[in-house]
């Protein structure tokens, strides 16, 4: 499964455009701005007013292969309620929504930056997927507090500093067998390691592995409450 195999032509066209522009932004003009941009892209360090213009173009943290892998996991797990932490421009959201639609499910995606949420909404609309996506604007560690339905799948991709808090917030509503995919791995920053250490602690009820893509992903499964 790759981008060429996306059978919905409307969504495929939007994904192609967004992946291409992310690729161009990363390889070209972005190099000059990269340190400041990557901080802004993860929602940290720089204020929104300070963001470099180039970063508006860069909206995907997954390459098409990783995104297709995410799509396959959602399809295979038959997930119905999918939560994304960190929408940005909606690239992963569109992949998640395509899978959600085939499962008769939906995506709740969370974004801190109103401009990004607006841009994501337009992309999702253009892809013809607005009926399966809800964008919750605000800090996910606050907005997701009102979630009171069982969650089958989580893609966690917002600021690493809040990733563990967001996961701990979601844990009570995860179904046994829920899958959590994230960009925070045991090879990453201090925050990434705190996240994976917690996921890997037997008392917390997950099994978790780093999948070594070019840029790795952590894939975890919630087994349910651990036996005492
Ligand atoms: C790496 S980007 C997400 C990329 C997106 N998932 C994709 O694959 O297209 C991270 C996003 O998380 C957002 N973010 C950071 N902290 C957040 C928070 N506390 N709550 C919600 N969104 C947050 C940032 O504004 C940024 O747009």
How is the topology of this model organized?
Elements: H1 9-27, H2 30-41, H3 64-77, E1 81-85, H4 91-102, E2 106-111, H5 114-126, E3 133-137, H6 140-143, E4 151-156, H7 160-170, E5 174-182, H8 190-200, E6 206-211, E7 217-222
Parallel strand pairs: 1-2, 1-4, 2-3, 4-5
Antiparallel strand pairs: 5-7, 6-7
Helix pairs in contact: 1-4, 3-4, 7-8
Bound molecules: S-adenosylmethionine (SAM).
Describe this structure in words.
This protein is of the alpha/beta class and 228 residues long. It folds into 2 domains: 3-56, no CATH class; 64-222, Rossmann fold (3-Layer(aba) Sandwich), CATH 3.40.50. 42% of the residues lie in helices and 19% in strands. It has 8 helices and 7 strands, in the order αααβαβαβαβαβαββ. It has a 7-stranded mixed beta sheet, sandwiched between helices. β1 (81-85), α4 (91-102) and β2 form a beta-alpha-beta unit. Bound molecules: S-adenosylmethionine. S-adenosylmethionine binds next to α4, β2 and α6.
Straight-line N-to-C gap: 41 Å
Described by the principal axes of the CA atoms, the overall outline is globular
Structural class: alpha/beta
- CATH class category name of the largest domain: Alpha Beta
H/E topology pattern: HHHEHEHEHEHEHEE
**What's the CATH architecture of the largest domain?**
3-Layer(aba) Sandwich
> Which fold name is given in CATH as the topology of the largest domain?
Rossmann fold
Bound molecules: S-adenosylmethionine
Could you tell me the strand content as a percent range?
15-25%
Report the radius of gyration as a whole number of Å. Answer: 17 Å
**Counted beta strands:** 7
pLDDT below 50 for ≥5 consecutive residues: which ranges? 45-57
> Biggest β-sheet: count, sense, barrel?
7 strands, mixed
Question: Helical element count?
Answer: 8
Nearest-integer average pLDDT: 87
CATH-level-4 superfamily name of the largest domain = Vaccinia Virus protein VP39
Count of the separate structural domains: 2
Query: Order of strands side by side in the largest beta sheet?
Result: 3-2-1-4-5-7-6
State the helicity in percent bands. Answer: 40-55%
